Amino acid sequence: MAISQLPALKFGANAIATIFVAFGINAIVRPANALTFFEPFSVPSDPNDAKTIAGLLAVYGARDIFMGLAIYAAAFLGTTRSLGWTVVAASAVAGFDGFVCYAHGGGQWSHWGYAPIVGVLGGLLTGLLDGGNSGKSQ
User: Fold this and answer.
1) pLDDT (tens digit, 9 = 90+) per residue, 44-102?
2) Sorted alphabetically, which keywords does the UniProt record give (predicted)?
């Protein structure tokens, strides 16, 4: 069996999707809590600014929910290779979130800590280590 076809990898991708959906729901329902994952930032004391931040976190939450749903769709309807590239893309988003935190004073490891794990999972699903059988037909 090709490495990309291991059931544990698809299970892992679905677990990552569930985490993204949960983070997205949290950002929409509890924006102040979601903002704590971006360490250098805090909820402003001005009500208008706080309202703006809540709106931006709703957009962030929708993005996370979309990423989770895209992973689910690829897992249940697509090929293993498409699932892998979708998971790799989600890893890149997490990496960029960490870069934004880094550029603003810290907290990047809340994102950079898991981005490589997600990236490796995605890479394995793409067929990276299948030895010539890249999972194109699966």
Assistant:
1) 999 999 999 999 999 999 999 999 999 999 999 999 999 999 999 999 999 999 999 99
2) Membrane, Transmembrane, Transmembrane helix
**What crossing angle do the helices spanning 7-29 and 47-77 adopt, rounded to 10°?**
160
Query: Directed axis angle between helix 115-126 and helix 80-103, to 10°?
Result: 160
Contact 122, 88 (CB under 8 A): yes
Q: Which are the contacts of 87, defined by CB distance < 8 A and separation ≥ 6?
A: 13, 16, 71, 74, 118, 119, 121, 122, 125
**Residue 111: what residue type?**
H
- 136 pLDDT exceeds 60? no
> What tokens does 117 get?
């794990």
Contact 20, 65 (CB under 8 A): yes
Q: Say what the pTM is.
A: 0.89
How many angstroms separate the Cα of 21 from the Cα of each of 1, 47, 67, 94, 106? 31, 28, 8, 14, 25
Amino acid at residue number 22: A
Rounded alpha-carbon distances, angstroms, from residue 96 to 22, 38, 44: 19, 12, 23
